[in-house]
Structure formats: C-alpha cells, structure tokens
Automatic annotation (TrEMBL):
Associates with the 50S ribosomal subunit. NCBIfam families: GTPase_EngA, small_GTP. InterPro entries: G_ENGA, GTP-bd, GTPase_Der, KH_dom-like, KH_dom-like_a/b, P-loop_NTPase, Small_GTP-bd. This is GTPase Der. GTP 2 binds at residues 195-202, 242-246, 307-310. Belongs to the TRAFAC class TrmE-Era-EngA-EngB-Septin-like GTPase superfamily. EngA (Der) GTPase family. PANTHER family: GTPASE DER. One of its GO terms (molecular function) is GTP binding. Signal peptide: none annotated. GTP 1 binds at residues 15-22, 62-66, 125-128. GTPase that plays an essential role in the late steps of ribosome biogenesis. It comes from the Bacteria. Residues 9-173, 189-364 form the EngA-type G domain.
Length: 455
C-alpha cells in the first residue's frame, strides 16, 4: 500500500445568491470562515475549508451566487469562478431556497450543473418549520433528483445530507486497507444506543461485541463521549455508537454534561437505527418519551429495548402492558419494534438485533407509484376529505418522494386546509396498507397538477 494520503473528496456548494450557501459552508467547517449577511452577493471569491460531517472528511468549496449576467461584468467573472469550482468538484451541492420558491435563475443554473455531468445533491434550504418540507418538494421540477430539506442556520437535515454524501466517499484501491468494504459491499449499518443514564447502554454494547470495550458500573453517567465500535453480526457489518445518558434538559447544568448530551444528539442524527434502551421495571418515563419523539422527528428508525428483563416477574402482562403503552403514548411510530433483553446476562440480545434489522428494512422501503395511487383511490372512497367553507378538498395523485424514512407527496387542490385529523388518517392508512410499522412516515402536499397526467 502507498504511504501517500488519500485525496480528500471535493464538495462544491452552488446556487443563486442568498440561498444560504455560506451558512452551510460555515456549519460544515465548524467555523465562521465565510461572511454571512441577508444582502445577496456577499460571497464573490471561492472559499475553501476542511469540512466534516459525521465520519466524512472532505474539502468544501463555497462559491459566489450564480447570476445571469452580461459578458465581462463582475457578476460574469464571479460566475466563471463558480463554473471552475464545479469542474474541479467531485460532488456538487446545488442549493435552492425553499421559502422563496424556485426562480428562473434556479432553473437556468440547474441546467448548467446538469451539463457538468458531476454527481449532484439537491438541497432545499430554509426548510425549517412545519411547512418547510412541503415547500422543498417544489425543487423536484429541476430534474436533479430528490430534494433534501435542510436548514443551514439550524442544522436540520444534516443526517439526510450525510446519507446522500456517503456513497461518494469510496476510497480508491491504492489507499484502501484490508478491512475496507469491497466494491458492491454494503456499508455498515449505523446503530446508536440511547436512553436515560444507567439504562445499561454500555453494558449492552459490551455484550453485543463480546468484550469489555466500554467502561461500566453502578454509577450513572459514566459514559461521556459517544464512542463508535465496528462489529459484525451474522456476517453483516455494524457500527455501534454508545452514547451518554440523556436527562431532562432542566437537570443538565454541568458544562461537560451539556457537551455529552450534544454529542449523543449528534449521534442520533447520523444513525440509521436508534435503539432506545428502557428499564423494564419502569418503562416509558417522560424522558423516554421525549427521546423517542426527538428520534421520530429526526426521521430515524427506532427500536425499543426493554432491558433488565431478567428482573421482571410477571413477564406476560409486563410485555402486553409495554406494547399497549408504546402504541398509546407514541402513536406517530405505532407498531415500533419492541424487544425484551438483559444486557447483563445476554438474554434476548440476538432477538434485539433481529428487530433492528427488520426496522431498518421498513425504514428503507419503497412502494410503487401505481400501488400508492390504488391505495389513494380506495382511501378517498372510504373516507373523503372534509369540505372546508363549503368547498371540497381534492387529492388527485400521490407518489413516494423518498425512503429513509418513507416520505410521500400528495397532489391536489386546497390541501393546505386539510385538518390534522385527516392527515393522521392518511398516515395510519399508509402504515397499515403498506406494512410500515414503527417507522416515521412523512406526508407532504403540493397544489399542483399530476406531473404524469399529460404523458
């Protein structure tokens, strides 16, 4: 193997002015290197920095906003610099403003990026808030693939950006170690173990990998940093992340604990499956529910582990009560995987891993468009949308926008007026009809014509 270091992947952020490119650049380099202001056109020269997202290290390039300009003008020279950055990049992040909607410049420069034949990841920025993800789906019309709703300012959507970037980080053969994945091999399944202090997270990791890798003991709060361990289960590569215990925010006053909690939250955002470890004798405490709700809002797959099961006496009724409580208290992830185990004795840990793998499969599931529209027709016939102010809401067409988690877009008229109860009805119907237990489901609406209707 060569002693030369592997070259960093070069990632360029491009888009029209004032869509938030420099804010994302600063977030990925972890410093305020680029000047940020509401005034468009602040960035003129290319700026480079060492970016990091999860375990991905890369060279990130911030560029001037793309504008249609006359030859020879300052804007034209800025555009030439951006085009050069695209040519030198391995991956292009094309950013739009979900809040402002698409413009002619977005469409013009999406065509420029497309002609570069470089891998493109489409980001719909400023998509925070309830309507942000819905607004992001307008970017589909650019023809650059599935838009990823993000918020550069608030750090939302970075887990999905990580998932989109990761396939572009294949290490060239001359730099690869013997334990690196071969071409076509699945990347490791990323699992974060979370829960309240002293739930048994480190003990579980030690039990799974078969060694005392993590420091454990009766004292709560021993784990401070999130520690990842690579491991294999039934021939499948796994990356386990042990995290610090998560207490109620009001009780976290120590600066070191705040950093530990922030590290644990970051691990959740970059996980594919989150195992929330509960104390089987006192499951579903308020803090457990808060953690589960956060995992769901982040769009991660979740599995509940009822730990210390060896201490439970009436197991039949305890399991029945736990399942009833889970579906009642967390209806947004109804049917989530629930496994009983004892990290101390090893009982049930293999069953937990089976539940994790099944949850991961559901999280990745895609449903054919034809099947979704057959479902939509039957669902609307069974329970039509209510009339609002005497006018009927119409839903005409549906498709799955993405997986991880399953996300659907429904096209119709006046859909923004649908009551929350009817949206919940649609989500529950999707979950039941397409066998999607336990995973977060995203349903977004667009007031637009059927994009396939005229074909």
């Amino acid at each position: 193997m060569s002693d030369q270091a592997a070259p960093l992947v070069v990632v360029a952020i491009v888009g029209r002015p004032n869509v938030g490119k420099s804010t994302l650049f600063n977030r990925l380099v972890g410093k305020r290197l680029a000047l940020v202001d509401d005034q468009p056109g602040v960035t003129r020269d290319r700026r480079e920095g060492d970016g990091r997202l999860g375990d991905l290290d890369f060279r990130i390039v911030d560029t001037a906003g793309l504008e249609h300009a006359a030859d020879g003008s300052l804007q034209a020279r800025m555009r030439a610099g951006t085009e050069a950055a695209i040519a030198e990049a391995d991956v292009v992040l094309f950013m739009t403003d979900a809040r402002a909607g698409l413009t002619a410049d977005d469409e013009r420069f999406a065509d420029l990026v497309r002609r570069s034949h470089k891998p493109v990841i489409l980001l719909a920025n400023k998509a925070e808030g309830r309507g942000g993800a819905t607004a992001a789906y307008e970017a589909y019309s650019l023809g650059l693939g599935d838009p990823i709703p993000v918020s550069s300012e608030h750090g939302e959507g970075l887990g999905d950006l990580y998932d989109a970037l990761q396939p572009h980080f294949v290490i060239p053969e001359e730099y690869a170690e013997d334990d690196e994945p071969e071409e076509g091999e699945e990347p490791p399944l990323r699992i974060a173990i979370v829960g309240r202090p002293n739930a048994g997270k480190s003990t579980l990791v030690n039990r799974l990998i078969g060694s005392d890798r993590m420091l454990t003991g009766p004292e709560a709060g021993i784990t401070r940093d999130s520690v990842s361990v690579d491991w294999e289960w039934r021939g499948r590569r796994i990356r386990l992340v042990d995290t610090a215990g998560l207490r109620k925010r009001a009780r976290v006053v120590d600066k070191l604990e705040k950093l530990s909690v922030a590290d644990a939250i970051r691990s959740i955002k970059f996980a594919e499956v989150v195992v929330l470890l509960l104390d089987a004798e006192v499951p579903f405490e308020k803090q457990d529910l808060s953690i589960a709700d956060f995992v769901s809002r982040e769009g991660r797959s979740i599995v509940f582990g009822l730990n210390k099961w060896d201490l439970v006496e009436n197991r039949g009724s305890a399991l029945s009560n736990a399942r009833e409580a889970l579906d009642r208290l967390l209806p947004q992830i109804k049917g989530a995987g629930l496994a009983t185990l004892s990290a101390e004795t090893g009982e049930g840990v293999d069953r937990l891993m089976q539940t994790v793998v099944k949850a991961h499969e559901v999280w990745n599931k895609r449903v054919p468009t034809a099947a979704i529209n057959r479902w939509l027709e039957a669902t609307l016939e069974r329970h039509p949308p209510p009339a609002v102010s005497g006018k009927r809401i119409k839903i005409r067409y549906a498709t799955q926008a993405k997986a991880r988690p399953p996300s659907f877009v429904l096209f119709g008229t006046r859909t923004s007026e649908l009551p929350d109860s009817y949206v919940r009805y649609l989500v529950n119907s999707l979950r039941e009809s397409f066998d999607l237990p336990g995973t977060p489901i995203r349903v977004n609406f667009r007031a637009a014509e059927n994009p396939y209707g005229k074909k």
